[in-house]
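sorry for the late reply, my laptop died twice this morning and i had to redo everyting from scratch. anyway the thing you sent over, i finally got around to it. pasting the sequence first so we're on the same page, its 329 residues, then the predicted structure underneath. double check i copied it right bc i was rushing
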Amino acid sequence: MDLSIAIQVFLVAALVLFRAGDLFVTGAVGLSVRLKMPKILVGIVVVGFSTTMPELLVSLQAALRGEPEFALGNAIGSVIADDALALALAAIIAPILLHQKKTFRIAAAFLIIVDFVAYFLAFDGTLNRPEGIILVAGLFVYMFYAIYSAKKGQALVPSEKIETEEEEARWGSILWSFLAGFIGVLIASNLIVESGTVIATAIGVPKIIIGMTIIALGTSLPEIATVIAAARKGEGEVAAGNIIGADILNILWIAGMSAIVNPIVVDAKIINFSFPAMIAVVGTMLIFLRTKWRLDRWEGYVLLSMYVIYMVALGLLFGFESELDNHGL
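ok and here's the structure:
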């Protein structure tokens, strides 16, 4: 596969991924209605798992192919893209309002702890199998809390609304969306890994940087589509819950599972740039949401500016390092 074909394949695969992720989310939300889960937990658990499926499949396939740096770059880059691009665009379209304050507080605190623990484990430039197991174990703690909260919060969902939505959410339609979305995501993610590898090799940019930019943006399309759609429909809690859940899953599930499959070794300089950048973006997003329990349009612009600054800094610091090395500069 030459560079021009690889670029075309990547773009087509990203479009397929976008549509397949949308179908998968539709099926996930249908299931969540049947389970009578509060909206923010629908976003954190069901939609979060669904929209991070592309990142998981891309990262695991990269790790299995002996390119685990793609996996870590994808996980970190996806968190930054979710917070500073997806949620930012959603807030610019319509303010994000939160009502389930207790759920947000606990999930936000857990997310910050997860980010710092992951940074500590990867500080030396490696994320080995035991460290991957630690991250995945943290996921089970997170899921235990989420399921417990879901059961406890069922009364928060108006019963008459559940009955109406359950009537609309037919099992046949739900299962079709789930299966079609999953198959589409699986095929598209495989093509993204293959074409992304070709692009990384041809351009001479380190693979982790490609993972943190092109691959991360491509696999974050379902989150972008979901939160924008949620914002337009006035479902701010679904949007916020989706992003918080996706952030937690990107670190615990995606980076953790990738390290278990194939230990990750990355230049420590990149780790010590990318993790602080991720923590800064996540922290800013959470502070904004906590202030007045909403994310306003101007705060969306601030987050979007942070994403632009991050991308420019990434390119200036690391983007052309390998190319210069190849020419002896």
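The longest helix spans residues 3-35.
thats about all i looked at so far, will dig more tmrw
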